[in-house]
């Protein structure tokens, strides 16, 4: 059994966090397991639905005073939280790797990335500006104030157990909102560690709440969506669940942020710097072993460079060291669970049965554990194959040859989602034409890794709406009030 040494044992929490209290008791419990070996890491309360109401009430009560705190005060708390995350990077990374399976080096990167949202939003909090407006009536004056929307329900996935929370929480807290967070039950320990650090950072009780459920996830979601005191739902996860939450939120017409699934195309032209394109396509494809929403799903490679690209790409994939995330030699950890492996296998078998060429066979690494999978690379993939129209969310590099720029833009756009896309070329005209033609929320040119707290993050089409991070992120947690004055000159 692999148990990492955690220097700050306070970071491992044993219960939910509601109104400044740690709730460890519950009639039912659920196990959090290490995906590398399926051994139990912890058992946590599988809470009753009534705790959602308790957490919402606490958040609503706290909102009455939190919304009146000065932006500078909120900035100080956020900066404290940023500093605390940095002081605990190694422990937080181990917790992520332990519960999620990703390689420790990637987990460290996630902690720094996650913390950067608290830093960013600590700087945004004091910079929320309204406007003054001269309306049609010359005797009137208008000014706008941006006010926090209220209690926010935050529902997050397992693939970035820390960063998907901080990206939302940073913006919401900067705006003056209070939170009820429901993490994925596979990776709740990182969320609880954040709650502990938020407490240490000085956030008042009731501002940052984390509820836990394993068996009642849909009921918790429904309650958050339908509760009148919750004013916004911010969700990151699959498009299917996003649609459910949006439907459920209709009865109370909540403000929504939806960060949903992707199916990223990477388009590599023959005039690209090939070595760089290979390196960056690998980084995009195999970050988190393919389990990120912005991971390359379709690698469109211009026919003239197809063979060379395949050879170089395959050679690098064969160098990966797949193993337990907590082992220092590991470059790529385990997948989250067997369902994830089943989906990768389904896409591989489907593509091969329809004529795809095997470049790297990959496959299960049962010798390491049930959730390990050696990355696979296929070529001669075409639009009849599932991998082109479904998000694999796993370690399959699917290479699709192309020879026409307009056709490749059309093919890349021919999916229901539109989150991230990538293009590689040294020709600035090609870059402009393709990046403007792609129907995606983010187009990354000549780089495969673009995520940054300063960059607006979000999708179009069925990848959802709302923008996280950047100068836009805080706006999603604010509502505009117009105050109209009649002036008696
Ligand atoms: N756009 C983004 O920023 C982004 C980021 C990360 C992941 N994703 C997407 O998330 C998906 C993978 O994550 P996943 O499999 O955990 O997604 P998921 O939708 O199954 O789960 C996400 C969260 O929703 C919860 N959930 C599931 N069913 C629910 C319901 N009926 N009501 C309320 N909550 C419910 C889960 O417990 C989890 O907390 C992929 O499609 C990926 O692209 C998107
Ligand atoms: O999985 C989605 C989030 C990925 C990122 O923020 O770079």
UniProtKB/TrEMBL annotation:
Its EC number is 1.2.1.16. Residues 22-483 form the Aldehyde dehydrogenase domain. The keyword ATP-binding does not apply. One of its GO terms (biological process) is gamma-aminobutyric acid catabolic process. CDD domains: ALDH_F5_SSADH_GabD (cd07103). The active site is at residue 259. Gene3D superfamilies: Aldehyde Dehydrogenase, Chain A, domain 1 (3.40.605.10), Aldehyde Dehydrogenase, Chain A, domain 2 (3.40.309.10). It comes from the Eukaryota. PANTHER family: SUCCINATE-SEMIALDEHYDE DEHYDROGENASE, MITOCHONDRIAL. This is Succinate-semialdehyde dehydrogenase. The lineage of its organism: Eukaryota, Fungi, Dikarya, Ascomycota, Saccharomycotina.
């Amino acid at each position: 059994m692999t148990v990492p040494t955690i220097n700050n044992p306070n970071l491992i929490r044993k219960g939910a966090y509601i109104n400044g209290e740690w709730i460890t008791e519950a009639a039912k419990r659920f196990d959090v397991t290490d995906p590398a070996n399926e051994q139990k890491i912890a058992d946590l309360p599988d809470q009753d639905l009534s705790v959602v109401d308790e957490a919402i009430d606490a958040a609503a009560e706290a909102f009455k005073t939190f919304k009146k705190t000065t932006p500078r005060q909120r900035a100080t708390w956020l900066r404290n939280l940023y500093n605390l995350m940095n002081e605990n990077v190694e422990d937080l990374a181990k917790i992520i790797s332990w519960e999620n399976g990703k390689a420790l080096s990637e987990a460290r990167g996630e902690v720094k990335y996650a913390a950067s949202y608290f830093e960013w939003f600590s700087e945004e909090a004091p910079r929320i500006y309204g406007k003054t407006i001269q309306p049609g009536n010359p005797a009137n004056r208008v000014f706008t104030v941006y006010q926090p929307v209220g209690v926010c329900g935050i529902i997050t996935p397992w693939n970035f157990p820390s960063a998907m929370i901080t990206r939302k929480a940073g913006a919401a807290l900067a705006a003056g909102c209070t939170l009820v967070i429901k993490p994925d039950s596979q990776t709740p320990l990182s969320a609880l560690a954040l709650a502990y650090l938020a407490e240490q950072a000085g956030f008042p009780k009731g501002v940052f709440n984390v509820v836990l459920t394993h068996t009642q996830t849909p009921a918790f979601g429904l309650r958050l969506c339908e509760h009148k005191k919750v004013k916004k739902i911010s969700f990151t996860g699959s498009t299917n669940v996003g649609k459910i939450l949006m439907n459920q939120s209709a009865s109370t017409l909540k403000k929504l942020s939806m960060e949903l699934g992707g199916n990223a195309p990477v388009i590599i032209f023959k005039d690209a710097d090939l070595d760089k394109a290979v390196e960056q396509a690998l980084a995009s494809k195999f970050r988190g072993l393919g389990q990120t929403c912005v991971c390359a799903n379709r690698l469109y490679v211009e026919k003239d460079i197809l063979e060379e690209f395949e050879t170089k790409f395959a050679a690098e994939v064969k160098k990966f060291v797949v193993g337990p995330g907590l082992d220092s030699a590991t470059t790529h950890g385990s997948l989250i669970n067997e369902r994830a492996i089943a989906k990768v296998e389904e896409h591989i078998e489907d593509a091969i049965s329809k004529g795809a060429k095997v470049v790297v066979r990959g496959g299960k690494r049962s010798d390491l554990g049930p959730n390990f999978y050696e990355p696979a690379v296929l070529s001669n993939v075409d639009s009849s194959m599932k991998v082109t129209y479904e998000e694999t969310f796993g370690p399959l590099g699917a290479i699709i040859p192309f020879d026409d720029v307009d056709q490749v833009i059309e093919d890349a756009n021919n999916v229901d989602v539109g989150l991230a896309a990538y293009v590689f070329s040294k020709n600035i005209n090609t870059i402009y034409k393709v990046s403007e033609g792609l129907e995606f929320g983010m187009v990354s040119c000549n780089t495969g890794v673009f995520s940054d707290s300063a960059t607006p993050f979000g999708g179009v089409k069925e990848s959802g709406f709302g923008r996280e991070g950047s100068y836009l992120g805080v706006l999603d947690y604010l509502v505009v009030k117009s105050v109209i004055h009649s002036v008696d000159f």
